[in-house]
Amino acid sequence: MALETSPETPVPVRQVVSLISGWVDRLGAVWVEGQVVQLNRPANSNTDFLTLRDKLADVSVQLTCPRAVVDSLPTPLVNGAQVIAHAKPVVYPNRGSLSLQVRELRLVGEGELLARLERRRQLLAAEGLFSQDLKRPLPFLPGRIGLVTAKDSAAEKDVVENARRRWPGVAFEIRYAAMQGPNAAAQVIESLGALDRDPAVDVIVIARGGGSVEDLLPFSDEALVRAVAAATTPVVSAIGHEPDSPLLDLVADLRASTPTDAAKRVVPDVAEEQQRVRQARERIRRTVLTFLAREQQHLDSMRSRPSMADPRNDLVSRGEEVLALRERSRRVLGHVLDRAGDDLEHSIARVRALSPLATLNRGYAVLSDADGQHVSSVDGVTAGSTITIRVADGRIGADVTEVEAIPLPLPHEES
C-alpha cells in the first residue's frame, strides 16, 4: 500500500525503513549468482562478509555468511571466485542497508577453478617452491636467449622484435610448444628441459598472449611448476596480461607482465647503455682531471718553497754550520790537549821527583854487598869486604877499609 504523505504530513525514517524491510521480506530466499570481489573474515567472529558483483553490470551486493558455510566448501573461497548463493534479502533498520543472508554457497565454473588453483598454490607454497631465496638473478647481457612459445604467435614476434630492437646482436634459441589445451603443459616441460640442458642458453623465456582462466590453466600445472623450480637456467614467465597470474609467475625467477615486458627485462637497451658508458667516461674524465689539477697544485706549492727553488741555499747555510762546528771542535780539542799536556808535564815532574835516579843526581849513592843486597846499615858491612856503589851515572866497585857506626839522633834532638 502506498503511503499518503505531504510536506505537512511526512513520515519518520523508521517507518519508511520498516515498510521497505517488510516489502523485501516478502521476496523470501533466492538463488543469486555473482563473482566474489571482496572477502572479509574477522578473526573474532563466526560470520564472514562478502561482496558479490554482477560480471555483466556494475552492480554489487553485500552478503553475510556463516563461517561454517564458507569452510564447508571443497576448496578455499578466494577473491574472483564465481559462486551461487541461496540467500534471503534483509534490510538492517539501524543502517538502512540491504544485505543477503547466505544459507547455502556453491562454487561454479570459473570460481571453482580458481578455488582449486588457490588450493594448489597454497600446497606448493608450503613446500617453499615460491621462496624468494630460490630466485636466480638474470644475466646482464645473455649471449643466447631460450624462448618457449607457440609457432608464429604474436608472443614470439613481441619478444624477438622488441629484444632485437633493444640489443640488435641478441641471439635466440626457440622451442615451439602448444600454449593451451591438454598437451600444452607436457610440451612446455619438454621444451624447457631441452633449453635448460643447452649450455649456450643463458636465460629462458616462456611467453604466451592473454586468454581466459581455462586457456591459461596449463601454466598452473603442478608438473610444469616443479620443472621450472628444478631448472638450473633462470626462467622468465611472460604469460597473458597484467591481471593474469598463473602459478608459473610465482615459481619463475622473474615475472613479466607481458611478452613485450619480458623482452625489456631480459636484454638491456643499447642506447641506454651507450648513454651510461658516455656518462661513466665523462665522470672518469672529470675525476682524473680533478686529480691531476690537485696534484699539479700540490707540486707547484712544493716547487715554490725556497729549498726547492734553489737547493743550494740550504747547502750553503748547512756548510757554514759545519765549518763553525769544525772550528769549535778544533778549539775545544786544542784546549783539552793543552790541559792534558800540562797535566802530563806535572805528572812527569812528580814522577821524576820521586824517582831514585833524581836522588842519586843530588849526590846520594846506593850500596850493595857482594851478593847484590842493598846495604842500609853498617851492621852488614865489615872491613875488608867488597861493596858496589851505585851513583847517578854508573857503578863503582870498592873495598871497605873502615866501618864506623854513627848513633842516630833522638826524635827530640831532631826537632
Describe what this molecule looks like in 3D.
- By secondary structure, the chain is α/β, with parallel strands linked by helices.
- It folds into 4 domains: 13-112, Beta Barrel (OB fold (Dihydrolipoamide Acetyltransferase, E2P)), CATH 2.40.50; 127-268, 3-Layer(aba) Sandwich (Rossmann fold); 305-354; 356-399, no CATH class.
- The protein is built from 13 helices and 14 strands.
- The strands form 3 sheets. It has a 5-stranded mixed barrel with strand order 1-2-3-5-4. The chain has a 5-stranded parallel beta sheet with strand order 7-6-8-9-10.
- The termini are far apart.
- The mean pLDDT is 85.
- Heterooligomer composed of large and small subunits.
Give keywords.
415 residues, alpha/beta, OB fold (Dihydrolipoamide Acetyltransferase, E2P), five-stranded mixed β-barrel, five-stranded parallel sheet, 13 helices, 42% helix, 21% strand
